[in-house]
Write a structure and sequence with these properties.
single chain, about 900 residues, alpha+beta, Zincin-like, Neutral Protease, domain 2, eight-stranded mixed β-sheet, 33 strands, about 40% helix, binds O-methyl-L-tyrosine, binds zinc ion, Peptidase_M1_pepN, zinc ion binding, Aminopeptidase_N-like_N, metalloprotease, alanyl aminopeptidase activity
C-alpha cells in the first residue's frame, strides 16, 4: 500500500480556530455493489476577522474528487488543488455565506482499515472518530467545527432494507430499479466524528423509553439476521442507563430515536455517534449459553458508556483531540458510577483499580507514557489509551473527592448549563467546579499535564504516652520519557483509623493539619500530620477506595496488614491489605524460584485468604476478588526490573498449590455449596457466586493435581461462565491432557457458527502459559476460521498472545517477539489501527532480564525499519524504543 508521509507532529500550542465557519451539511450517499457516490453540500462563511485571502483547506484521506461546485457553479480547476489527502480552494467569497458541493466516489468494499465508510458482513457502516470522516468527503474534519446534518441514503431495497443516519427520520420512499431512500435530520450541531450511516439487511429489537419530561423515545437495536433476541440484555442495560442519567445527573435524552447497530468488524468497542451508536457486536449480543458473566458486565458498561456520551461528548464535545479525556475520562467515570450503583460499589471499585494498575500503570511507567492531556501527537488513534480513559476517570473521581459529592453535582450542572453546544476544554471543565464550589484547582490541574505515576510514601509513628499518631506523607514523581515535569500535585488521600475491634475511630488532627473529614489533602512534597487523643494504637487504613492514582508505599507491618485484612470497615482497603500481602509473598516466591529454591509461603497469609473465602458476612463477589491472586503480569510489574517470567510462573503456581492444599478441606464443601439451584440468572449476586466457585475450583485443581473436577464441570455446565471457566482451567493447568484436547474439540464443534465464542476458543489457546504456546498460535494462524482482517479475531489470537501470555510472548529465545512483530507487519497492511494497538504489548520490554531485553529491542528495531509501515505502527514502535 502506498502511504503518504504524515510524519508531522501536531501540537496543542498550535491550536487556532478555522478561517471558515460551517453552518449546515447536506449529504446524499448512494450505495452500489462496487462503489458509493457521496455528494456533500456545505454551507460556509468566512469567519469574522479571518484573512480575506485565506484559502479553504479541507482534509481528505485516500479520496477521489468527482466534482466541485461553488454556489451551484462548477469551480474552475485552476482555483483548487485536489489530492487524495486534501482539497485546497482559493478565491472564496470574502463575506457572506456560500455553498460548496463536493462529489466523491468511494469503494467501501475495499476499505480494510475500517475507518470511514466500509462493509462488514454485507452491511455498510461508518466509523469517523477520530479522523474517519475525511475518508468519506473533503471536510474540516476536526471536533471544533459543528454543523447540523441532513443525510439522504439510497440503496437497493432488497440488499439494504434498513437505511440509517443520525438524528430523527424525516422522509423515506421508493426509487426506480428496486432502490429506495431515507432522509435523516439531526437538529443538534455536531462535529464530523459523530457522523454515522448504516445500511443493510438487519434484524431489529424494538422498544421505547419515556423520558423524565414525558417524551417517548423509540429504542432500536439492529443485529445481523436472526440474532435480535440476543440484544435483550443490551436493551435492558440501555433503559437502565437512561433512567440513571436522569436521576444521577439530571440528563435527559434529546432525539425521538436512539439506535444501536451491532457490527462484526469493528476496530474498537463501540462508538457514540449522535443517536446512532455503532457497536462491536461483542458488546451487544449475548445469552447465557454463549456469554460469560464478564461478557454481561462488559455489555452493560459499554452500552452505558456510549449512552452517557450523549451529554459528555456529544452535546458538549472537545475543542481539539488534546482534550480527548474531557469526554472519555468523564464518561468512564460516569459508567463506573453507574456500574457501582447497579452492582456492588466495592466490587466495582476493586475491579476498576485492578484494571488501572494492570493496564494504565505500565503505560504510565514505560516508554508510551503521556499525560492525561497530551501536548503533542503524531497519530491520534494511538491516544485512545488507558491513560486518557482510565487515569482520566481517576482525575474526575479525585475532583469529586476534593469538592465533595454535592459540590461535584453542582459543578457538573454548571458544566452542562454553560457549555451545552460547545467544543470545550479541560480549563472550561475545571472552571465549573471552581465557580460552583470555591475550590482552588490550580495545583490539581498539574494532574492533566504531568505524566507518570506519583509514588505516595506513608510512614507512621505512634507515641503511646501522648496518645498521638504521627503520619508523614511524601509524594515523588520521577521524570519519565514524556519529560512533562515533577512538581508536587494535590493528592486527596482518604483514610481511616481503625480500632482494635474494627470500628473507625474519629480522627482528631492537630490544628492546621490539611485534613477535611476523612480526606488528607497532600499538596507538598512532604507533610507531617499528628492525630491526637488516641487511647490505643489504631491500624492505619490509608488511601481508602484508592482515592488517588498513585503507587502507594507504606512500611506497614505484616501483622497490621493481617489485622486490616480482617477488620477494616472499608471493603476496598480490606481487599488491598490482603492483596498487598499476597503480592509481597509472590515476589518473595519468585526470588526463591529463580534461585532454584523451594517456594515458601507464610501459612498465616494462606490462612487469611482461606478465612476470607469462608467469611459469610462478605458478598461472594468480594471474596472472589480477594482470592484472585495477582496475575503473572502484575507480579512482573511489582518486581519492576530484571524480570524472569518463567520464575514468576513457577512461583505463582507453587503459591496457588500451597494455598489450595492448606484450604482444600474447607474449600471443597464451600465450592459444593455454591452450586446453583434453579435457572441461570446474570444478576450480580449470582455472578458473584459463580466467580467465587471458579477461583475455588482452581485452588482445588492445583491441590489435587487431577483435572477431574474441571472435566465434570465442563461436561455438565449449562452456561458459558461455568463451562468456559472449566475449559480455561483445563487448558492452563493440564494442557497436554487428553481430556483437555477433547474438551477443546467439543467446544469448537458446538460453537463453530458463533464468531464471538470462537474468539474465546482462539484466545484461550493463545494464553496457555507455556513456551509451546507459540507453536500452537502459529498453527492457529492457518486455521480455516482465522481471519487477520477481522479485528476481534486478530486480537483474540495475536493480541491475546502478545498481551496475555507472559511466558509465550517473552520466550527467552525471542521467538515470541519475532512472531508478533511479523504478524504486526502483516496486519499493518490491512488495518494500521489494530496493528498499532497490538504493538503496544512491547511497552514493558525494558523490565525483563538482559537476554530478553536484547531480543525485544531487536524485534522492535527491525519492525521500525520495515518499509511502508503505517504512521500508527511507526509511532508506537519508535516511542517504545525511546
Ligand atoms: N469514542 C469511542 C471510542 C472509539 C474511538 C475511535 C474509534 O475508531 C475506530 C472507535 C471508537 C468510545 O469511547 O467508546
Ligand atoms: Zn468513550
Amino acid at each position: 500500500m502506498l502511504r503518504p508521509d504524515q510524519d508531522q507532529v501536531i501540537r496543542l500550542t498550535d491550536y487556532r480556530p478555522t478561517d471558515f465557519q460551517l453552518a449546515t451539511v447536506d449529504m446524499r450517499v448512494q450505495l452500489f455493489a462496487e462503489h458509493a457516490d457521496v455528494l456533500t453540500v456545505l454551507q460556509l462563511e468566512r469567519r469574522a476577522g479571518a484573512p480575506a485571502t485565506a484559502d479553504l483547506v479541507l482534509d481528505g484521506d485516500e479520496l477521489a474528487l468527482v466534482s466541485l461546485a461553488l454556489d451551484g457553479t462548477p469551480v474552475d480547476p485552476s482555483q483548487y488543488d485536489a489530492t487524495p489527502q486534501g482539497l485546497t480552494i482559493r478565491g472564496l467569497p470574502e463575506s457572506g455565506s456560500f455553498t460548496l458541493a463536493i462529489e466523491t466516489r468511494l469503494q467501501p468494499q475495499l476499505n480494510t482499515q475500517l475507518m470511514g465508510l466500509y462493509r462488514s458482513g454485507g452491511v455498510w457502516c461508518t466509523q469517523c472518530e477520530a479522523e474517519g470522516f475525511r475518508r468519506i468527503t473533503y471536510f474540516l474534519d476536526r471536533p471544533d467545527v459543528l454543523a447540523t446534518y441532513r443525510v439522504r441514503v439510497e440503496a437497493d431495497k432488497a440488499e439494504a432494507p434498513v437505511l440509517l443516519s443520525n438524528g430523527n427520520p424525516a422522509e423515506h420512499g421508493l426509487l426506480d430499479g428496486g432502490r429506495h431512500f431515507a432522509v435523516w435530520d439531526d437538529p443538534f450541531p455536531k462535529p464530523s466524528y459523530l457522523f454515522a450511516l448504516v445500511a443493510g439487511d438487519l434484524d431489529r429489537l424494538g422498544d421505547h423509553f419515556t423520558t423524565m419530561s414525558g417524551r417517548r423515545v423509540a429504542l432500536d437495536i439492529y443485529t445481523e439476521k436472526g440474532r435480535a433476541h440476543e440484544a435483550l440484555y443490551a436493551m435492558d442495560a440501555l433503559k437502565r442507563s437512561m433512567v440513571w442519567d436522569e436521576q444521577r445527573f439530571g440528563r435527559e435524552y434529546d432525539l425521538d430515536v436512539f439506535s444501536i447497530v451491532a457490527i462484526s468488524d469493528f476496530n474498537m468497542g463501540a462508538m457514540e455517534n449522535k443517536g446512532l451508536n455503532v457497536f462491536n457486536h461483542k458488546y451487544v449480543l449475548l445469552d447465557s449459553e454463549t456469554a460469560t458473566d464478564g461478557d454481561y458486565a462488559g455489555v452493560e458498561t459499554v452500552i452505558a458508556h456510549e449512552y452517557f456520551h450523549n451529554w459528555t461528548g456529544n452535546r458538549i464535545t472537545c475543542r481539539d483531540w488534546f482534550q480527548l479525556c474531557l469526554k472519555e475520562g468523564l464518561t468512564v467515570y460516569r459508567d463506573q458510577e453507574f456500574s457501582a450503583d447497579e452492582r456492588s460499589a466495592a466490587v466495582k471499585r476493586i475491579a476498576s483499580v485492578r484494571g488501572l494498575t494492570a493496564h494504565q500503570f505500565p503505560e504510565d511507567q514505560g516508554p508510551l507514557q503521556h499525560p492525561v492531556r497530551p501536548s503533542e501527537y503524531r497519530e491520534i488513534s494511538n491516544f485512545y489509551t488507558a491513560t486518557i480513559y482510565d487515569k482520566g476517570a481517576e482525575l474526575v473521581r479525585m475532583i469529586a473527592t476534593i469538592v465533595g459529592q454535592a459540590g461535584f453535582r453542582a459543578g457538573m450542572d454548571l458544566y452542562f448549563a454553560r457549555h451545552d453546544g460547545d467544543a470545550a476544554t479541560i480549563e472550561d471543565f475545571l472552571a465549573c467546579f471552581v465557580e460552583a464550589t470555591g475550590a482552588d484547582l490550580t495545583q490539581f490541574a498539574l494532574w492533566y499535564s504531568q505524566a507518570g505515576t506519583p509514588v505516595l510514601k506513608v510512614e507512621e509513628r505512634f507515641d503511646a504516652d501522648r496518645g498521638e499518631l504521627t503520619l508523614t506523607l511524601g509524594q515523588h514523581l520521577a521524570q519519565g520519557p514524556a519529560g512533562t515535569g515533577t512538581l508536587p500535585m494535590h493528592i486527596p488521600v482518604r483514610f481511616g483509623l481503625v480500632g482494635a475491634n474494627g470500628q473507625d475511630l474519629v480522627p482528631a488532627p492537630r490544628d492546621g493539619a490539611p485534613v477535611e473529614g476523612d480526606v488528607i489533602h497532600l499538596r507538598d512534597a512532604e507533610t507531617t500530620i499528628v492525630f491526637e487523643g488516641l487511647g490505643e494504637r489504631p491500624y492505619l487504613s490509608i488511601l481508602r477506595d484508592f482515592s488517588a492514582a498513585v503507587a502507594l508505599r507504606t512500611s506497614q507491618r505484616e501483622r497490621d496488614r493481617l489485622a486490616l485484612a480482617r477488620l477494616d470497615g472499608n471493603p476496598f482497603n480490606r481487599w488491598r491489605a490482603l492483596s498487598d500481602l499476597v503480592g509481597e509473598a509472590l515476589q518473595a516466591a519468585t526470588i526463591d524460584a529463580r534461585g532454584g529454591n523451594p517456594v515458601r509461603l507464610n501459612p498465616a497469609i494462606a490462612e487469611a485468604l482461606i478465612a476470607t473465602a469462608l467469611d459469610e458476612t462478605l458478598e461472594p463477589a468480594l471474596r472472589a476478588q480477594a482470592l484472585s491472586l495477582p496475575s503473572e503480569a502484575d507480579i512482573a510489574r511489582l518486581l519492576g526490573e530484571n524480570v524472569d517470567p518463567d520464575a514468576i510462573h513457577i512461583a505463582r503456581d507453587a503459591v496457588v498449590t500451597a494455598i489450595g492444599r492448606q484450604g482444600e478441606k474447607r474449600f471443597a464443601p464451600l465450592f459444593a455449596g455454591l452450586a446453583r439451584q434453579g435457572a441461570f440468572s446474570p444478576d450480580a449476586d449470582s455472578a458473584g457466586r459463580r466467580a467465587l466457585a471458579s477461583v475455588l475450583l482452581d485452588f482445588l485443581l492445583a491441590a489435587s493435581g487431577t483435572p477431574d473436577r474441571a472435566v465434570q464441570q465442563f461436561r455438565t455446565a449449562d452456561n458459558m461462565t461455568e463451562q468456559f471457566a472449566a475449559l480455561t482451567m483445563l487448558c492452563h493447568r493440564f494442557p497436554e491432557d487428553d481430556a483437555t484436547r477433547d474438551a477443546l474439540a467439543a467446544f469448537y464443534s458446538r460453537f463453530e457458527t458463533n464468531a464471538l465464542v470462537i474468539d474465546k476458543w482462539f484466545s484461550l489457546q493463545a494464553t496457555v502459559p507455556s513456551p509451546s504456546a507459540l507453536a500452537t498460535v502459529r498453527a492457529l494462524t492457518a486455521h480455516p476460521a482465522f481471519r487477520l482482517a477481522n479485528p476481534n479475531r486478530a486480537r483474540a489470537l495475536i493480541g491475546a498472545f502478545a498481551a496475555g501470555n507472559q511466558i509465550g510472548f517473552n520466550r527467552a529465545d525471542g521467538a515470541g517477539y519475532a512472531f508478533v512483530a511479523e504478524m504486526i507487519q502483516a496486519l499493518d497492511e490491512l488495518n494500521p489501527q489494530v496493528a498499532a494497538r497490538i504493538a503496544t504489548a512491547f511497552r514493558s520490554w525494558r523490565c525483563f532480564d538482559s537476554g530478553r531485553r536484547e531480543k525485544a529491542r531487536a524485534a522492535l528495531a527491525q519492525l521500525s525499519e520495515m518499509k511502508g509501515l503505517s504512521t500508527d505502527v511507526k509511532d508506537i514502535v519508535e516511542r517504545s524504543l525511546r
